[in-house]
Write a structure and sequence with these properties.
15 helices; six-stranded mixed sheet; 20 strands; 39% helix; binds adenosine-5'-diphosphate; alpha/beta
């Protein structure tokens, strides 16, 4: 299914110190297409020795990269951005093949992912320090920012391009080098990005990709190797906690983008059509497999029946199909395990009294497809309400008052994204101030952009990606006190 030009970007081994490792055919892992479980290709399975070599290479290459002017680093990053955009279609085909999402969404992710490289190329030139008014006449005080050092990154399969560029772009802009372990489900997008970085002139050792089936072993190396100064992780909360504890021994800085459990709150006074549009985008994008996907839909009782009716009709019209079908809205889930998890959550809710107005089971298409689903009569005790669904399932519950909505919404350890629909300005502010979330969409279901700080509070994470704040995680602040000033 990969056409000739996208096949030109296919790589089958880890990229370390500017080179593609030799492929040992006895030691390779299959990359599967989740739409039909066919093998797309095989990729060499790296071990921890290779991760160690990559970290060493990153450590040796970094000083020369950091010593370049920010403008020079920026021009290389801009070239990388341009090459990605020139190969947008090829990269989208690779992504759809290994991740399953519709091509139209894959193209959008390539542009979104590339936008972080463009943004941080610009930000590289704005890493300012401070002159601090001194407390003495004979001293001068200042603070300067320097690259933190070798960065490691562990990324998930749900955004195979953007989760890498959100980390690699600020790291490289700041003057750091990086070793990335992409998810085993989607290594091809990561490797294609590395090939384009290489073509753009990123020097050997500055960006390294290690593909491995040994997530635990590589994770230990990336979080415990003393040469590494920072680990940036996007994935499940459980794995994030393991990595944080592994980083503790060498006191590494960490950035964590972990699981969410987003409430989508619609008040009686909301513009209903706009709320449905926002919900469809927030809930069903990437077949519901994003950490900012609305997970719990809270609808005020005055509009509940009408809302369910419109939502059910809209969801019924979604087309499930292979990502290469240009009319498909919903692709397959990533694999059989994901399908099983979603099916179990829905079955359990149905057994506890929930009702499916649409869907409620795996799709007749088979493989890893699940029917887009709307569940009513949901309550807060059901797992479908408490856990991240990661599938095209919309559980809806009604609420009475604003205070009830806030209490239900905040009653979780997650704090990533929340959404509120209301036409009342005072209520907008009250909700914005009281919801315990790192990001809030108000009358908007799609909030991610390279321009704004993405990240969560509570157990959803530490640090922010994108925006002017995103580069800070890759910098150390150094204080200088200059004495002996003669005035
Ligand atoms: P998901 O459930 O979305 O796959 P995970 O947290 O399991 O989320 O995976 C996100 C990334 O973390 C992937 O690259 C995966 O290989 C990696 N990973 C999984 N388990 C571990 C672990 N114990 N240590 C380090 N990395 C891990």
């Amino acid at each position: 299914m990969l056409n000739l030009s996208s096949a030109n970007l296919l790589r089958q081994s880890s990229f370390v110190n500017g080179e593609w490792l030799n492929i040992d055919t006895n030691n390779a892992v299959a990359v599967l297409n989740p739409a039909n479980d066919n093998v797309i290709t095989y990729v060499h399975d790296a071990n921890t020795e290779i991760a160690k070599t990559a970290i060493k290479a990153a450590s040796q290459a970094m000083p020369a990269w950091a010593a370049l002017t920010a403008k020079t680093r920026a021009s290389i990053l801009k070239k990388w951005f341009q090459l990605i955009m020139q190969h947008q279609e090829d990269l989208a085909l690779i992504m759809t093949a290994e991740q399953g999402r519709p091509l139209v969404e894959a193209r959008a992710e390539i542009a979104y992912g590339a936008s972080f490289i463009e943004w941080f190329a610009e930000e590289a030139k704005r890493v300012y320090g401070d002159i601090i008014p001194s407390n003495r006449t004979d001293t001068r005080l200042m603070a300067m920012k320097q690259p933190i050092g070798v960065v490691t990154a562990i990324t998930p399969w749900n955004f195979p391009c953007a989760m890498i560029t959100r980390k690699a772009a600020p790291a490289l802009a700041a003057g750091c080098s990086i070793v990335i372990k992409p998810a085993l489900e989607t290594p091809l997008s990561a490797l294609a990005l590395a090939e384009l970085a290489h073509q753009a002139g990123v020097p050997a050792g500055i960006i390294n990709i290690v593909v491995s089936s040994d997530a635990v072993g590589i994770g230990k190396e990336l979080s415990q190797n003393p040469l590494v100064k920072k680990l940036s992780f996007t994935g499940s909360t459980n794995v994030g906690k393991i990595l944080m504890s592994q980083c503790a021994n060498t006191v590494k800085k960490t950035s964590m983008e972990l699981g969410g459990n987003a409430p989508f709150i619609i008040f009686d006074d909301a513009d209903l059509q706009s709320a449905i549009k926002g919900l469809m985008a927030s809930k069903f994008r990437n077949s519901g497999q994003t950490c900012v996907c609305s997970n719990r839909i809270l609808v005020q009782e005055g509009i509940y029946d009408e809302f369910i009716q419109i939502l059910s009709k809209t969801v019924k019209a979604l087309r499930v199909g292979e990502g290469t079908d240009e009319h498909a809205n919903i692709g397959p889930l990533i694999d059989g395990k994901a399908l099983h998890n979603v099916a179990a959550l829905v079955e359990e809710a149905l057994a506890m009294g929930a009702k499916a107005t649409v869907g409620g089971q795996p799709s007749v298409l088979g493989y890893n497809f699940y029917e887009p689903t709307v569940l009513t009569h949901v309550d807060t005790t059901m797992r479908v309400f408490k856990e991240e669904i990661f599938g095209p399932v919309a559980p809806v519950m009604s609420f009475k008052t604003e205070a009830d909505a806030i209490e239900i919404a905040n009653n979780t350890t997650a704090g990533l994204a929340a959404y509120v629909y209301t036409e009342n300005m005072s209520r907008t502010w009250r909700m914005a101030e009281k919801l315990e979330y790192g990001m809030i969409g108000i009358n908007e279901g799609i909030i991610s952009t390279e321009l704004a700080p993405f990240g969560g509070i509570k157990e959803s994470g530490i640090g922010r990606e994108g925006s002017k704040y995103g580069i800070e995680d890759f910098l150390e602040l150094k204080y200088l006190c200059i004495g002996g000033m003669k005035t």
